[in-house]
Amino acid sequence: MVVVVDTWGTMRYVSPSHRHVLGYAPEALHGQVTLDYTHPDDVARVRASFAACLRAPSVPVPVELRLRHADGSWRTVESVMDNRLADPAVGGVIVTSRDITDRTRAEEVLRLSEARYRALSEHASDIVAILGPNGTICYASPSHHRILGYRPEEIVGSSVLEWTHPDDRVRARDAVAACLRQPGGTSRVESRLRHADGRWITLECIADNRLDDPAIGGVVVTSRDITARVRAEDELRASEERLRTVVTNAPIILFALDRDGVYTMSEGMGLAALGREPGGVVGRSVFDVYRDQPALLDCTRRALAGEPVAFASYLQGAVFDNRLVPLYDAEGRLGSVIGVSTDITERARAEAALEESRAERERSNADLAQFAYVASHDLQEPLRTASSYLSLLKRRYRGRLDESADEFIDYAVDGATRMSALIRDVLAYSRVGTRAKEFAPVDCAALVATATANLQARIADTGARVTATGLPMVCGDDTQLGQLFQNLIGNALKFCRDAPDVRVSAERQGDSWLMQVRDNGIGIAPDQAERIFQVFQRLHSRTEYEGTGIGLAVCKRIVERHGGRIWVESEPGQGASFLFTLPAV
Fold first, then answer.
1. How does 5-33 read in b/e, with b if 16+ C-beta sit within 10 Å?
2. What's the pLDDT band for 415 if we cut at 50, 70, 90?
3. How many CB atoms are located within 10 Å of the residue 288 CB?
4. With a threshold of 0.85, does the pTM exceed it?
5. Which of 38, 216, 403, 487 could pair covalently with 210 via S-S, beta carbons 3.0-4.6 A apart?
6. CA distance 485 to 495
7. Which residues face 86 on adjacent strands?
8. How far is CA 551 from each of CA 95, 343, 554, rounded to the nearest angstrom?
9. Among residues 130, 204, 199, 127, which one has the least CA distance to residue 165?
C-alpha cells in the first residue's frame, strides 16, 4: 500500500491496494488523517516516527503499527516513511506499507510456544538434555540443578558419559549409538549419574533422535529420577528373598488358592511331612487333594466364602495348625485365599505329655491331700484319748512318785499337746484344697478386723499395735483369706522382742492388688526367704518360739490357689514385709 501525507498527516494520495488490504475505497480515505485509523496503543510511537521523518528529508524511517480494517479488526503493517516534501513532483511524505498480520501472529504463536516450552523445561520434574552426534551435551534444562546439583552451564559441552556410573557406561553408550542409527527413533535405558555431592542418582532415560529436525539438530534425552523407586524395588526383592528363605527353611506350608479352590502356590519345608515337593499341587483343586478330609474342606469352603478361619488338621501322622485368610481385589471381590500351615506335631506331643503329667500330678496331690485329711482326722480320736489319760495321770500322781516319774509325765503330756497342734495344722493345710469355697467379692478390711479380734488376747499381752489402711475388695475365698491374714498377723506378733507394730496396706497393680503385712520383729535372713514357706520348716527351736512350721506353707497355698504369689523382704533385726498378690474385683 502507498499513501502520500502532508505535514499534518492528512492523506493526499491513497493507492487502490488499500481496498484489498484494509477494505476501504481510496476515495473514502482521501483527506483523512492517518492517526485516526491507527491503534490507540501505537499512536504515540507513530507520531514520534513521523516527527523524525519530517526532520530528516530523504532518510527512510521504518515503523510497525496496527491499522483499523473496515470490518473493525486490526491489521499489522510494516511501514517506511520517506520525506519528499522538497520534491515538487511529490510535495509530501511517502508512506509505503505491507501487511504483516499473518507473520506477526505466527511469530506470537512461536513466542508463546517457546515460552511454554521454556517454562516446562525449567519447572518440569524431569530433566531434559540435547546431545550432539558425538554425545556432547548441547543443552541442559535448569532442572539439572534441582535433581543432580549442577547448573546447566557446568555440564554443557561435556560428554554425558563423564557423569555416568562406570558400571553403566557401556549400556548408556550402546543406547545412544542405537538411537543415532535410527533417525526419528527412540531408545530407553536406566542409568546412574553422579550427583554434585558425590552420590549416585538412578535415572530412567528416553533418547529421541531429532538430528533431522532443524530446530533441534540433536538427540533429546528426557530423564526421570527413579532412585526412590529403585531403592524400594531393591528392598522389596530383599524382603521377598528373606521371606522365601524363611518359607523354604521353616516347618510351615505357605499356599494360595484361587477363588475356585485351585492351588496357585505351595511352598515350605512342612510339605516334607506330607511327602510332597514344593509346587507339587499347583494347578490341582484342594477338594481333589484332600477329598478324604471333610473337616479340612469345610474350613476351606468357609475361607472361600470370605471368612478368616483357624483350625487344626491331622494329616499322615502329623499335626498342623492352619490359618486361612481371604484376600480381596480393588473392587471388593474375593480374589484368593492365603494359607499358612505350621507343623506342630512335636508341640502337640509335648502338650499332650504335659497335660497327662499335670493330670497325674493333680490326682496325686488330691490323693495326698485326702490322705492327709483322713490321717489327721482319724488320729484325732486316739490322740484325744491318750491326752485325756495323760492329763488324768498328771493330776492324780504328780508328786506321789519320784522326780523322774513327774518329768516323764510332763514329757508325755507336752508331746501329746504338740502332736494335737501338728495334726490340727496338717488338717488345715489339706483343707486348702479339699474344703475350698467358690470365689466371691471379699472386703479385706473386714477380714483384717476379724483376724485382729481373734488375736485380741495376744495383742493385749504383747502391747501390740495393728493398723490397716487402704484395704480393697478382692475376689476370693473369704474363709481362706481370713486365715491368711490371721496367720501373717499372728506371726508378726509372735516373732517380735519389743512391742509389735504391725501395718497392713495395699497397692493397685493392673488387675491385681499387692498386699503387704509389715512388722518390726526379729527379721529373716535373705537366704531363708524361700525355706520358710515349706512345710515343717522352722528357723527357731520350740523353746524360743512355739509352732509347727506349717503356718506359712498354708499361706503360700492359699495365695497360689487365688492365682497370686507370696514372698518376704527382710533383713535380720530389721523387721519383715510379707507381700502377696490377690485378684481385684
1. beeebebeebbeebbebbebebeebeebe
2. low
3. 11
4. no
5. 216
6. 16
7. none
8. 131, 48, 5
9. 199
